[in-house]
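#dry-run=false #mode=assembly
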Amino acid sequence: QKEVEQNSGPLSVPEGAIASLNCTYSDRVSQSFFWYRQYSGKSPELIMSIYSNGDKEDGRFTAQLNKASQYVSLLIRDSQPSDSATYLCAVRDSGGSNYKLTFGKGTLLTVNP
Amino acid sequence: DAEITQSPRHKITETGRQVTLACHQTWNHNNMFWYRQDLGHGLRLIHYSYGVQDTNKGEVSDGYSVSRSNTEDLPLTLESAASSQTSVYFCASSLDSNQPQHFGDGTRLSIL
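#status=ok
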């Protein structure tokens, strides 16, 4: 059974701080990793995808991937109250024609003004 | 703009009834997925399809069925609704293996 683990939180940070969200996965050969943001009562919304070891930056968001440690993280710089949401880590199942994603249960982030 | 739409947005029904949730996407994506989301369980895959006439079971498929007669639609049917199937249901689609899945707005289903 493939697993994706996230701290459930809540993670509380002050406005302007860096929020760090972490995710570990069990499938050693996974190749594609995604972070989704989900506001309460809404659907998941893609914010970052990462496929190679290292960092990928997009605005205030940075995704970090370490395949050797089976670890992916999301950093949110200059956190805003509008960033308060649940963040879902998703890992594509391995296998050439396998398009399924396994999701973590999500980390609830609260940014305090 | 291309999009993925789910209907209805909310539904209340009784145990034992057949229920069908619709999912329609205009991206021409081959891959479509149905999830349920419950507190404490996160998103769990019910069924998925990689193209017309292709359907596959996910981790929580018991009591659910899908059919894929065209690229745009993947309806989810609950053959005989049970209270345990009260949940929020999301449909998603993706273009290929390295592309992310994009989600519809969800259907909140209550079974009394």
